[in-house]
Amino acid sequence: MSDTDRLYALSSTYNNPFWPSESGPGLLINDAVLAMRWYLTSEREENLDVTAHVSDDDGATWRPLPVRELLADAERALATAPQAPDP
Questions:
Q1: pTM score > 0.70 for this model?
Q2: How far apart are CA 6 and CA 86, in angstroms?
């Protein structure tokens, strides 16, 4: 997949009773598909609350990114990705 002009910053906090509000792992990447996968894995399997932000100007400014917009970016990236050749 090709790189994009958008940067995705995802951060997380633990939502379990043992580590309430402790910071969890984060991700900074320019690949919408991997960002969406990280979001889904962290949010559902790791019991983390994940927030996302996006930058369209190489990280100079950031704005909150709704999950539906991240999903739409990932779907667009997959739709335009080169297909694997038939075996």
A1: yes
A2: 31
